[in-house]
Specification:
The chain has 124 residues and is α+β, with helices and mostly antiparallel strands. The chain contains two helices and eight strands; from the N terminus they run αββββαββββ. Strands 1, 2, 3, 4, 5, 6, 7 and 8 form an eight-stranded antiparallel β-sheet that branches. β6 and β7 form a beta hairpin. The radius of gyration is 15 Å and the shape is globular. The termini are close together.
Length: 124
C-alpha cells in the first residue's frame, strides 16, 4: 500500500470524525500537555493552532498525538501519531504535523467481538 493511498484513507476518516481533536505533546518534566485544536489538511500535513506551551513542547519534542473521541453511537476513537513543526509566516502560531501512523482504537462502548485496533495509516 502506498503512502498517498493511506493518506487518502486517513483523510476520509478525518471527514468522518470532524475538524476538532485533542493534541497531546510532552513537556519538560515528561508530563503530557493536552489541548483542543481545530485540524485542517495542507498538502500531506495536518495543520493546527498552537499556544506558547504547545509550541515550546514541539520545539523540544516534535513527536505528537492527535485524538478524536469516538462519535456518539460508534465504538472507535481515531488516534494519529505524527511529527510536528512550527509553520513560519503565519499571524497565529501554527503547527504542521506529518502523520506517521493512525489507528481506530476500540472504546469500552465498542463491540467486544470487533477488532481492538484497526490500522488506518501503517507506521513507516
Amino acid at each position: 500500500m502506498s503512502i498517498p493511498v493511506e493518506l487518502a484513507a486517513l483523510a476520509e476518516r478525518l471527514d468522518e470524525y470532524g475538524p476538532v481533536a485533542y493534541l497531546v505533546t510532552v513537556g519538560d518534566e515528561s508530563l503530557p500537555h493536552v489541548v483542543s485544536v481545530r485540524v485542517a489538511w495542507e498538502g500531506d500535513e495536518l495543520v493546527v493552532g498552537a499556544g506558547r506551551r504547545t509550541s515550546a513542547n514541539v520545539e523540544q519534542r516534535p513527536q505528537v498525538t492527535l485524538l478524536w473521541p469516538a462519535p456518539p453511537g460508534t465504538g472507535y476513537a481515531l488516534i494519529v501519531d505524527g511529527t510536528a513543526r512550527a509553520v513560519a509566516g503565519r499571524v497565529e502560531a501554527m503547527l504542521a504535523i506529518g502523520p506517521n501512523a493512525a489507528v481506530l482504537h476500540r472504546t469500552p462502548e465498542g463491540d467486544a467481538s470487533a477488532p481492538s485496533c484497526i490500522t488506518v495509516l501503517a507506521r513507516a
